[in-house]
Design goal:
The structure holds two protein chains of two kinds. Chain A is built from eleven helices and four strands; from the N terminus they run H-H-E-H-E-H-H-E-H-E-H-H-H-H-H. Chain A is an alpha+beta fold. By secondary structure, chain B is α/β, with parallel strands linked by helices. Classes of the chains: A alpha+beta, B alpha/beta. Chains A and B meet through helix 8 and helix 9 of A and helix 2 and helix 3 of B.
Chain lengths: 294, 229
Amino acid sequence: MRVNFVLSEVATGLRRNLTMTVAMILTTAISLGLMGTGLLIAGMISDMKEIYYDKVQVSIFLADDVTDEQRGAIEAQLADSPEVQSYLYESKAEAYERFQQQFSQQPELVENTPADALPESFRVELVNPERYEVIAAEFPNGQNGVDQVRDEGDFLDRLFSLLNGARNATIAVAVVQALAALLLISNTIQLAAFNRRNETNIMRLVGASRWYTQLPFILEAALAGLIGALLAVGGLVLTKVLFVDKTLAGPIKAGIIPPVDWGAIATISPIIAGAGVGLAAVAAYVTLRLYVRL
Amino acid sequence: MIELQHVTKLYPASGRPALDDVSTEIDKGEFVFLIGSSGSGKSTFLRLLLKEDDPTRGTVTVNGKTLNTMSKWQVPKLRRTMGCVFQDFRLLRNRTVAENVAFALEVINKPHRTIKRVVPEVLEMVGLEGKAARLPHELSGGEQQRVAIARAFVNRPLVLLADEPTGNLDPETSEGIMLLLERINRTGTTVIMATHDYHIVDSMRRRVIELNGGQITRDQTRGVYGVGR
């Protein structure tokens, strides 16, 4: 195979259809960028699940006027309960400390919150997280010093279903964009083949192999796919640097949401590149088989 | 060498067959004129030999290989043994004379050394030495056809198919082209030429196959264009 010949054919092809090539690269880039975002969100979700789910499952907030006796009774009940794996007592002071830490990026909020505004609580880990109802029944709200029993798992489920929805929506848009990208690739290849019909006709007549005739077109699409993938990765890097690291710095530092680290981007970049190159090449090949006589 | 047995070719769009039960045989080294009015089946005849199309019925054999049963990936190999020349030359406009000829060898992976050696040889043979660096539009019609012939012949094909190669040329230029084709024929290459040019056919006195409505109506070894002309 004559590498120079093939490469110069590829370059000519891309140059001749510049507008189509640009459109093809951009759609590919957007699609792959969204796909990458979806993958990042998916990774983030599983990180967050690790952060949250293992910790608190049920919080028992105590009333402001709880007595030492009531507190002692609750603690004893928790200690005896077969449903309880472990529990942790958090005083008002500890709660306030954690609050200060969590919202260190929003000093106004901290300033405006009195030190005793946060309730003391028991953080309870259940043997079986699904058995929240049992605990809730054992400690009726507003009685015996209990202000409120809250299923944090329930809250997390809602949070995660929101995040899952965001991920699914991103991937859905990515798929639609990918479809547009594939059609554009197919169109561009048809145009390219039409532009070079003199060359390919002669190649066919002098007995160039099918592979030799097709390879420049397939490489052309693959190259566009690769450029699109590089743009997509660039987009992800920019999103991390300009949006995630800046706007979300507070919650990340506080450990509320996990950071998007370079490792995650490094992991999905080859996936994106592979998908871009592979899909473009396959689309080009299929187009040549179906629509173009070579 | 080349054999057609009861070959019929129907195109879906047309009710009348382009070729209708055609049987003939062409030996190695023959020079054959394929004549007949437009639509008589000459081009279809040539296309079937190149396996650009498959016959609807009957068998086509070239160099001992039956084209009907030939698989797709073997077709390039078949075409490397055949050269093609057309009325409209079909040169690549942005490539020089030498590059146009070299293109035919490059795309079938001939080594650079070979290309460097044989391209000047074949250009000299067709009388274009000194014009290797010209672009096609800088050449006359006759010279462009010589480039096309050089390209068709550079890989030393067993068969040269020419579809009205003089159709765009004046009589004098045509004569030069015919001398060239005759010379190629003398190297042992079978030449099959579809033409309307009766001057040429009459003066060469070679085998004439006349097609009419897709059927062979005449096959003469030293024929002329029109009977009784």
